[in-house]
Structure formats: structure tokens, C-alpha cells
TrEMBL record:
InterPro entries: Gfo/Idh/MocA-like_OxRdtase_N (IPR000683), Gfo/Idh/MocA_oxidrdct_glycsds (IPR050463), GFO_IDH_MocA-like_dom (IPR055170), NAD(P)-bd_dom_sf (IPR036291). Residues 135-270 form the GFO/IDH/MocA-like oxidoreductase domain. It comes from Brachybacterium aquaticum. This is Putative dehydrogenase. Residues 10-123 form the Gfo/Idh/MocA-like oxidoreductase N-terminal domain. The lineage of its organism: Bacteria, Bacillati, Actinomycetota, Actinomycetes, Micrococcales. SUPFAM superfamilies: Glyceraldehyde-3-phosphate dehydrogenase-like, C-terminal domain, NAD(P)-binding Rossmann-fold domains.
Amino acid sequence: MTTPFTGPVGVGFIGAGVISDQYLTNLTTFPDVEVLILGDLDTERAAAQAAKYGVPASGTAQDVLDHPGVQVVVNLTIPAVHTEISSQAIAAGKHVWTEKPLGLEREASKALLAQADEAGLRIGSAPDTVLGAGVQTAKRAILDGLIGRPLFAQTSMQWQGPEVFHPNPGFLFAKGAGPLLDMGPYYFTTLVSLFGTVDKVAAIGLKATEEREIRVGDKAGTTFPVEVPSTISVLTQFEAGQTGTSLLSFDSPLARQGIVEIHGTEGSLVVPDPNMFEGRIAYVRPFETFGERPPEQEWIEIPQEGPVTGRGLGLLDMVRAINENRPHVATGEVGYHVLDIMLSAEESAASGEFVTVESSVAEIPAVPADFDPLAKTL
């Protein structure tokens, strides 16, 4: 059993880049946690972020690991070193919250989970958008039987790609990224949260071009190689019987993002963008009968219930779960299963065959509607 906390939990960051703003905006306001130190390869950047958010200390990654008050490390490093940094934090006796994905390959990610389990420490893995009011309201509606028995899901994330705004987008088309590993965690984590374990996948991918051109910044006009599919369609078969179809593309002139639809025996439910913590939730009922042509279907709106704060909810749920001796929602095991799904999709796209997903997850709990990030509970 993990040792419970006796007051606000000390938090240290490794990685003080752009996404740290979203985490710091929230974690510096939650009474149950206290951000003590920020570490980064660029120590000046860490110091600037610390000054901006009133964090008392900054320095290197090692300074964070050595800090005696840090009980949880927030790993915001680049994906290629996620497992390495998380492993160092576990070895230092710290719990870990890591940005997505958990890692980039199976063996190192499995070893990380085993290391944490042996040490009696917890790992939480982004995205924690699934803890927001949007997905959680939809999840409770499905559990309450609003749309009957869920049958299948459709998701879509498509647009023309990040080179139109990012000054150095090459890494987003390199091995370990692409639309699948960059944006896929949001969509597949949502589907796993709603349906549970994925049993097998099939996928087809393509590259629109072998090279792409940077459109903005100092490198505008230069090209970079495309190492992974820039469009991929994934078919998922869930252990509980549902199926899913997911499109992830950096090649579409038509922008259509955040599409998550769940279709059941008694209705179809629109779920908010899984990259957000809130959004529209609505459903339609099937027709009983109609005349020569069907009338326009009536959308029934569902009010959101629950927290909409933003990034950091997953870490907060994890530390509260430790004190309550219960599973947290965004576990390392969920992060690993989502990684396994995505790597299996890559393998299927390369082989042209269905691939069995070897990992599985336990039932993922719903977040209570009265979960209050601003409450003091520790």
C-alpha cells in the first residue's frame, strides 16, 4: 500500500516548456498540491517560469530529483526520453505524472510500470482531459443507459498539418509522432475510458508526400522528411464487443477535429473534443416510424457536470487516490494500453493484417460529478 500524504503534496517539474504553462496555471491553485521546484535543460527558462508562477526554486532535472520535499515529479520532457526520466524519478522515490505518450516502445514502458509497482509508487499518464466535465458527463450518461447498449464509435481528427504554424515541425512527422502518436492518445484514451480494453486493431496508413515544407519562421521554405504515415485509419475491436473507426490525418484541407460519436441501441451520443476538458454533449433518439421521408432529428442537449479546470486534474486525482487507497483514473496502465493500441496500429498498417493488442486494462472508474479541484482534502 502506498504511504498516504499528511498535507499538500510537494510537486516538482522536469521540463518547463510551453505546455508547463497549462499545468502551472492549475497546479499552483490546487490546495492539495504545492509546486516546489521547476527543472529544465535550459535553467534560465526554468527560472523564468518559476518567477512567473511564484514557484520558490528552479534548476536542473537533477535538482528536482534531489529536492527532499518533492513527492511527485511532473515529466514534461520530449516523448523520446519519457521513460528514462520517469524511471529516474521512480528510482529517486517519487511518484510520477508524465505527459503523453507513456513511452515510445513497449519494453521500456512495461519495465517502467514494473519498477513503480516494485517501489510501491504510482504513475499517472496524460491525457487527463478524460477527467474533465465533457468526457465524464458522457461516460456517466452511457453508464446510466441513456443510449442503450453501446455498439460502435466514430472519431476523426483531420487537418492540413502543423507546418502551417509551427516553425520547426519536423519532429511531428518523425518516428514516434505523426498524427497517430501525437493526437491519437486523446482519442484512444477516451474510447478506452468509455469501452475498456481493445482486443485487436487493423489500420491503413499513407504519406501524402515523402517531404514537407515549413511555411513559417526562420526556416520557411526548407523541407524535412516524413518518416511515418501522415494519414492513418484505425479499426478497433473492443473486448466487450464494441467496434470503433478512427481517422487521424495531417493531410486534409478540410479541418474536422474533436469528433467523437458513440452509437447505441437506443440513441447516438456526441462526446466533446477529447483534447479539451469540456464541450457540447448531446444525443438523438432513433425514429419509431416516419412517412415518406424521415423528419429532421432532434438533438437533446445534456448539461455538463464536473470539473473543467484543465491539465493537472489527473495528478490531483492520483494524489487523492493514494490517500483514499483507490485506483486513480489516468493510470500508467491505461497509458501503456493506449500506447500498445497505437503501436499495434502502426504494425497493422505496415503488415496489412489485424494485430492483437496484448495488454489490457481494469475497469476505469468514473469521476464523481462533485469532484472539486479547489477543495482542501489532504
